Each structure stands twice: as C-alpha cells, then as structure tokens.
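dumping this here before i forget
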Amino acid sequence: MYKYLLVLVAAFTLNAELLGPPNAQQGKPPGEGRPFRPKLTEEQKKQRNELIAKSVIKKLSKLNKNLSVAESITGGGLATALTDIAGSSKVFVGGVIAYSDEVKINQLSVSKSNLKKYGPVSEEVVLEMAQSCLKKFKTDYALATTGVAGPGMAYGKKAGTVWIAVASKKESFTVALSLPGTREVIRHATIASALSALEQIGRAHV
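structure:
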C-alpha cells in the first residue's frame, strides 16, 4: 500500500528561508500554511535547487539508479533543475510535461474516472502519473508533481495546493503540501520540495 513520505519534513530545512515550516499532512488534503515571509533572492533560490539536485544526482549515481519525471505544475522545471547539473545524464532518463488532462490521459495513462472524480490536483492522479512514468521510461524511480500555482483557485483547490509522488518498483510515496506565495514562488518551491523528497529516499538507501 501507499504511504506518506514523512521524512520530507526534515528535508524542508533546506527550504526554511523561503517557506517557513511546511504543512505536510498524512492522509489529509493540504491545509493552511504559515504566513509567507520571502527572504531568498532569485539567485539564492536557483542555488538552493542546484544544491538539492546535485545531492539527488550524486546519491542516485552511487546507487546506480536512474530517474524519470512527470510534471504538471512544475512545467519542465524538475527536468531543467536536474539537467543543469553536470553528470545528470548518468541518472536522468527523461520525462513528460503533462500540463493538460489530455496529455495525462494519452501519455501517462491517467484514468478518466480518477480525473473526473478527484480532479487533476489529487493524490490519486499524482500517483498514477508517477507510476505510469516509471513504466513508460523503465526507470528505478519516477517523480511526479501536480498542483495549483495560482493566482486564484483552480479545480476547486486553492493556490498553493500541491501533490508530489515518488514511485519505485517496490513502493510509492505521496506528499500533500500547502505552499504560500506567488505563482513563481509556488512553482520554485514545488521543484525544491520534490527534489527534497527524492533526495531523502536516496539518503535512506545510502
């Protein structure tokens, strides 16, 4: 069965300057986050993501494992963060930018029934995205993101509502987040958070 990646809480110390303590909840939809107090510059956010991406690449290389991504809210940002790192070709295989429901259905085999019942921003859909990505690219790990970057609500969810999934051949993990801030901040924070989730898994296996 699926279980929630609670170790992600520890990983968010890397993002504390930007987000404050995260609101990752087990078995519940995202709730209210703490007040937003932006502190990082754009360059600092880029450096933070590079730091986490380097750690992910290093750990997966050491484990001789590879990775694929399925992105909705991040729109290719995960793939960019990974391929910006020298040596990423040793572990990063490729990915799908599934921004529309049609692409989720046609490229990732996400079920129409889940999209209709739960909506594209849901645990059920992000799990299907990650697991289908794993099969499509035949990788050891797959990372998926979906959410509402804003401004305003979408699919009946508030801006900052994010779901992340990490899938492997043995098991799958999900994380529900409520991220404050602008559209750009939410997207950047989702990239950092997803990489942190995967980095924690790599750390657990090293």
